[in-house]
Design brief:
- One of its GO terms (molecular function) is phosphopyruvate hydratase activity.
- InterPro entries: DD_ENO4, Enolase, Enolase-like_C_sf, Enolase-like_N, Enolase_C, Enolase_N.
- Belongs to the enolase family.
- There is one protein chain.
- This protein is an alpha/beta fold.
- Helix content is 43%, strand content 17%.
- The chain contains 15 helices and 16 strands.
- It has an 8-stranded mixed β-barrel with strand order 4-5-8-12-13-14-15-16.
């Protein structure tokens, strides 16, 4: 019995010694003493809450434990992917944040349901298996490191897919020579020499249409990259206890900035592009540019009043009235580009809103969608075709007639570089030319372009966005919400635009939960910055927007991966 007790006492002694050594190595006595001293000094009402908060600050930094990819439905009821980040926090696994980004199969292309479902399944498989394994144990606050790993993973998959495609092409053999089809019909034979000469002139007058640049390949599953990157950024912001916009601003500027400004919201008023019911296809969006120096809520209130007046005019002057389309804007049925501008002119006049001084307009032309390659011309309206040079002339006439139009987005294809330069020469002093760099971030700059449009989609990481905007510093950069496959309740785009320090952000029309959530978030950020005394006011837009003397002509009353 004595020996047994002795053994028990020895075991207890060893256990006490081991415990003491464990506590010593982890500085438990010192921290307990310090915590108790602080507790006595502050004497809080919630004693245990104070102790819990004290020791929470001493916890090990959270590390990513796993990722989860979930199939969700976007704003249009189409399948999309959402990435969720889990971390070990206080020895327990905790869901930290989730995020989804817009999905596009390429510029302005829609996926078939089966193909979209396959892409989403691939993205879910990437997130749940290889990406989750790759990022396990990673510090979520190391955004650059995480994005570098994501981009490398994507590039490996991209090269593997490219090799497979090249092997398939080799197995099929060289393509057969296509039949040469003239871009325009030759003049019919005629005995009249004058008519023959006229036919020759018309045939030779047509310039050769440059072939389309190969579209950017969209790798199935690439949506996982952008979604995980954003989810990790939101996790890092949550861990550091700061809003996402301040977290991104610190990533871009390497430190927390002392002042931040709110990008001016560009609000889409009308849509009369290819999807509209009318013949006109040229104007994908007519966008309102408010004067700088106004609060977001004030801008929205004025725009809603203008929108109501536009609806009233349309309901009384057209057969079908006004209809709100999926993108939350008024869909109009027109035949000529002057008609929507006349409508806005009349509505502004009735609302005592000075067009050209209080508000200006931008036109998202989306011209690359309108090229008819069989004819080498842009079909700006049903049956109305224009060569690139003719389209430049039309823009010049339109901007001259409507001086309130101060920006054109994608007025031509990238391939028509000669016409970009010509357009810049004729309207560049009074109208800003912007091009979409979402898919061509590293392409040679277009002549005359002074602004760029950027969308957060597919494999674009947060670090990519920071890199792209830093490279284009000095030019007007606008963050645009895409009009399809937009997450319903994610307001991250507003935070991203503020954090990146962009000039403008386009969130769409003033309708629909997926858009108003983002506008409300922008208002909330503005109020936070104002309360903290770090809201920087931008009193002027970059030229040629709102230049002195740039007002509506009274005689023309009808009128933006480096990880």
């Amino acid at each position: 019995m004595a020996n047994r007790l002795s053994e028990e006492e020895q075991d207890l002694h060893h256990m006490k010694s081991a415990a003491a050594e464990f506590y010593r190595l982890n500085r438990v006595p010192q921290e307990l003493e310090r915590a108790l001293n602080q507790l006595f000094i502050h004497r809080p009402e919630d004693v245990h809450g104070y102790l819990a908060d004290y020791f929470r600050k001493l916890c090990a930094a959270p590390r990513i434990s796993r990722l989860r990819g979930k199939e969700v439905y976007d704003a249009r009821g189409q399948l999309s992917i959402e990435a969720e980040v889990f971390c070990i926090v206080c020895n327990k696994e905790k869901s930290m944040s989730s995020a989804a980004v817009s999905s596009l199969s390429g510029p302005k292309e829609a996926l078939l349901d089966q193909q979209r479902a396959a892409d989403v399944r691939t993205a879910a498989q990437w997130i749940n298996e290889p990406l989750s394994t790759m990022l396990k144990g990673t510090d979520p606050c190391q955004q650059s490191e995480v994005d570098h790993m994501l981009s490398n993973f994507f590039m490996v998959r991209y090269l593997e897919d490219k090799d497979i495609q090249n092997k398939e092409k080799e197995e099929l053999g060289p393509p057969s020579e296509p039949e040469v089809v003239p871009s325009s019909p030759l003049p019919a034979p005629s005995k009249d020499k004058k008519s023959v000469d006229k036919g020759k002139k018309s045939a030779t007058a047509e310039k050769h249409c440059p072939p389309a640049e190969p579209p950017e390949a969209v790798l199935p599953g690439s949506l996982a990259i952008g979604s995980v990157s954003l989810a990790v950024a939101r996790t890092g912001a949550q861990i550091q206890g700061v809003p996402l916009y301040r977290y991104i601003a610190a990533l871009k500027n390497t430190e927390d900035p002392t002042q931040l400004h709110i990008p001016v919201p560009l609000i889409t008023l009308l849509s009369c592009g290819k999807a509209s019911t009318g013949k006109l296809s040229l104007l994908e969006e007519v966008i309102l540019i408010p004067r700088a120096g106004q609060r977001v809520k004030q801008i929205i209130t004025k725009t809603l009043e203008l929108q109501k007046e536009m609806m009233r005019i349309m309901n009384t002057s057209t057969k079908h009235g006004a209809v709100l389309c999926d993108s939350g804007v008024l869909a109009v049925s027109y035949e000529r580009p002057e008609q929507p501008l006349d409508l806005i002119t009349e509505a502004c006049s009735n609302s005592a809103l000075a067009l050209g001084t209080e508000v200006q307009l931008a036109l998202n032309c989306a011209a690359p969608e309108l090229m008819d390659y069989t004819k080498g011309k842009y079909e700006i309206a049903t049956g109305v075709l224009k060569t690139p040079d003719e389209l430049v002339d039309m823009y010049q006439t339109l901007v001259s007639k409507y001086p309130a139009v101060v920006a054109l987005i994608d007025p031509l294809r990238r391939e028509d570089r000669e016409q970009w330069e010509k357009l810049s020469n004729v309207i560049g002093d009074s109208c800003l030319l912007l091009s979409d760099i979402t898919y061509k971030a590293k392409a040679p700059p277009l002549p005359g372009v002074r602004g760029h449009v950027l969308k957060h989609t597919q494999e674009t990481t947060v670090s990519d966005l920071i890199c792209i905007t830093s490279e284009h510093k000095g030019s007007v950069v606008t963050m645009m919400m895409t009009t399809c496959s937009e997450p319903c309740s994610d307001d991250s785009l507003s935070d991203i635009a503020v954090g990146l320090g962009l000039d403008f952000v386009k969130l769409g029309g003033l309708s629909g939960a997926e858009r108003m959530t983002k506008y409300n978030r922008l208002i909330c950020i503005e109020e936070e910055l104002s309360q903290q005394g770090i809201l920087a006011s931008k009193e002027k837009h970059p030229p040629p927007l709102f230049r002195e003397g740039a007002v509506l002509n009274a005689d023309a009353a009808h009128s933006f991966g480096c990880a």
